[in-house]
Amino acid sequence: MKIKSKLPCRMTNGKTPRQAYLAKRRNDKILVLTLQIGILAAFIGLWELAATLGWIDSFIMSCPSRIVKTLSSFAAAEIFKHIGYTLLECVIGFIIASGLGTLIAVLLWRFTKLRRVSEPYIIVLNALPKIALGPIIIIWVGAGMQAITVMTVLICIIVTIISVLNAFMTVDPGKILLLRSMGATKLQILTKLILPANIPALVNMLKINVGLAWVGTIMGEYLVSTAGLGYLIIYGSQVFKMDLVMSSTVILCILAAAMYLAVAGVEKLTKKRYMTD
């Protein structure tokens, strides 16, 4: 005799528990987004109000209206030229550092003795202020985009190596031993276990490198550049045009946010692929 038991699906305000949960998540996202936009709008409004009422010196601190006026006075071709230089240097350095750093991490994971020998050098290089290498980089590769790209790579690559290698080393040794007992090669273990298990860690590394790449790019432009947003910031500070400095900084914030959102989009795709299966 079969006993069929059906648990009643409780309704909350005419919704199933799943529908209520999804509605709560959607409302939470809307609330967070609203608060984020509200905080930004309040900051901009307070900044403008403080400058208008004389609470701050708008000549030194600038204000949103002066920033808009400064940007509107730029020729479109000129401002896009500076944005293009900085964005290209940042993206190239970001791609090279992320790819090369991951490759080096793979080699260090593959060869244990190489990892043990190179570990103290990696620690020292990570602690070394990269700005100190600026004059040497200029002499080696020349004063131009190459030097700025190299500076960006140096800022990012050591952190990439350390973070990716640490992620590789946290994979369950039991799973590795199981694959070895089944005759799997090092390459098979890497491609079938290590890399797939660390997709979230690799995406997090990209998110970290977004910020570091912009730091390296602007640092390089501070040292040597004839164009770019870093050049505009240095030029503006030298001639005491703080509106130009703040306008360039605002553009940098927008570009960095856009690049971060692009990486966040990649993260969403990887979550659908590797966390829902």
Describe the structure concisely for a colleague.
By secondary structure, the protein is mostly helical. 81% of the residues lie in helices and 0% in strands.
Explain the overall architecture.
- There is one protein chain.
- This protein is 81% helix and 0% strand.
- The protein is mainly alpha-helical.
- It has helices spanning 17-52, 58-61, 64-73, 76-110, 112-127, 134-141, 145-169, 173-181, 186-197, 199-223, 229-238, 242-274.
- The protein has twelve helices and no strands.
Low-confidence stretches are none
Name the helix and strand elements from N-terminus to C-terminus, one letter apiece: HHHHHHHHHHHH
Mean pLDDT metric:
85
- Radius of gyration, taken over Cα atoms and rounded to an integer in Å: 25 Å
Q: Give the strand tally.
A: 0
Approximately what portion of the residues adopt beta-strand conformation?
under 5%
Largest sheet: none
Give the count of helical stretches. 12
What's the helical proportion of residues?
over 70%
Content-based structural category:
mainly alpha
The best one-word shape is: flat
Q: What's the end-to-end separation, in Å?
A: 37 Å
